[in-house]
Design brief:
Elements: H1 2-14, H2 16-30, H3 37-44, H4 46-69, H5 88-103, H6 111-121
Length: 122
């Protein structure tokens, strides 16, 4: 696991210059639209302070990566499998009930009625 952490760290720091350049272009494109002067100033502040922001972001990612990948107190997820109570007879009953509604040309029905009816059958 330590090898993955070193690889993650190296790639994260190697990508900082590319992220900074892409961020500059993104911030300059935003300033061409109808933003307030404070928004434009905040975008221009990314040019000198962008590398510092990105390095701090990488450190926060490293802390999160370290805490969550080297934990020993993890509980195993156990999914309990429930046996189905649905049988062919109940499916046929639902199908016949729905077809009766179709032949009677019922276009709308209260879902509460359906739930109670099918729950009592199952």
């Amino acid at each position: 696991m330590m090898i993955l952490f070193v690889i993650f760290t190296a790639i994260s720091f190697a990508l900082i210059p590319f992220a900074w350049i892409i961020g500059i272009f993104d911030k300059l494109n935003v300033t061409n639209t109808n933003y307030t002067i404070m928004d434009k100033i905040a975008n221009y502040m990314f040019i000198p302070f962008g590398p510092l922001i990105l390095v701090l972001d990488v450190f926060s990612d490293l802390i999160y990566f370290w805490k969550n990948n080297f934990r020993t107190d993890l509980k195993q997820n156990i999914i309990v499998k429930d046996d189905s109570e649905l049988i062919h007879e109940s499916l046929r009953d639902m199908e016949s009930h729905i077809s009766k509604m179709g032949t009677n040309k019922i276009k709308s029905l209260n879902t509460g009625y359906l739930i109670k009816h099918f729950r009592s059958k199952l």
